[in-house]
Structures are given as structure tokens and as C-alpha cells.
Amino acid sequence: MAWFESSLGLPFPEVMVFLAMAAELVGGAMLLAGLLTRLVSIPLMVTMLVAVFAVHWDNGWLALSDSTSWLANDRVMEAAPRKARIISILKEHGDYSWLTGRGSVTILNNGIEFAAMYFVMLLSLFFTGGGRYTSVDYWLTRWTGRAS
């Protein structure tokens, strides 16, 4: 709650934390089941918009620091020498091949990329619904006889 109030400057931090937590936990479970998909996507889209504009906006687009991207900003470019230093420390003091056996070293930029993509996916679900045969919504509609 302190982070919502001090860092983000959101009003009523207790309420905002509860709403965000409920939207993400309960809404995420409902999306997974395909229950009230269109309705649940609305508060989740609002949550993603708050994440984009209140949390990630100042960091630019990229979620991961990739200095080769045309979207790289100063923050991402600053990460390149830090990444090189991390790799040299790992090679000198650790088993580098084991440490990077499942992927390379990366530095998080915390940009809007993931939140924006989630918003677009939720927007799609808002218009298309949960899907045929795989969602609770579909089976409830068939069971109640309102299928078209």
C-alpha cells in the first residue's frame, strides 16, 4: 500500500491494492476457466492501463534491456556495460556455462511492453469471448439454451 501511495501517487491505496489484487487473482482464475470472460476482461484492462501509465511509462517500451533494438532508450543503453560487467564476473567467479544453460543474462528494463501486450490480449478477449468448447461461458450458454 505504501508503494501505491508514495511511488505511484494513487489515491485510496488500500482500495486500489484490493481492487488490483482481486482483478488479477480472481479475474485471472476466471479467465483461465473462461467464466464471464468479457466482463472480467474489463477490470483487467483497466489494471493494465494503470500499470502502463503509472508504473512503466517512464522506462520506455522495452521490458528487457536490448541495446540492439531500435526502441532502446538511454536507460537501455546504460544497461549494456552493466550486463558486460555481470557476464565477466560470472565467467571469472562462477560456472558460466551452467548459469546460462537455460538462457542468457539479461537486465530488466521494466518498460510498458508486457503490460501493453496484455492489454491487447484482454481487448481481444473482450470482443471474442472465451472461445468455443473450451470455456465455461460456452457450456453455460448451451446449457441455458441461449446459444445462437
Could you characterize the architecture of this molecule?
The chain has 148 residues and is mainly α. The protein folds into two domains: 1-58 and 111-148, no CATH class; 64-109, no CATH class. It contains seven helices and no strands. The protein has helices at residues 2-6, 13-33, 37-56, 74-93, 96-99, 113-128, 136-144. The N and C termini lie far apart (46 Å). The model has no long low-confidence stretch (mean pLDDT 91).
Name a few traits of the molecule:
single chain; 148 residues; mainly alpha; 7 helices
Summed up, what is this model?
With about 150 residues, the chain is an all-alpha fold.
What is the topology?
Elements: H1 2-6, H2 13-33, H3 37-56, H4 74-93, H5 96-99, H6 113-128, H7 136-144
Class by alpha and beta content? mainly alpha
Order of helices and strands: HHHHHHH
Number of helices: 7
Strand content: under 5%
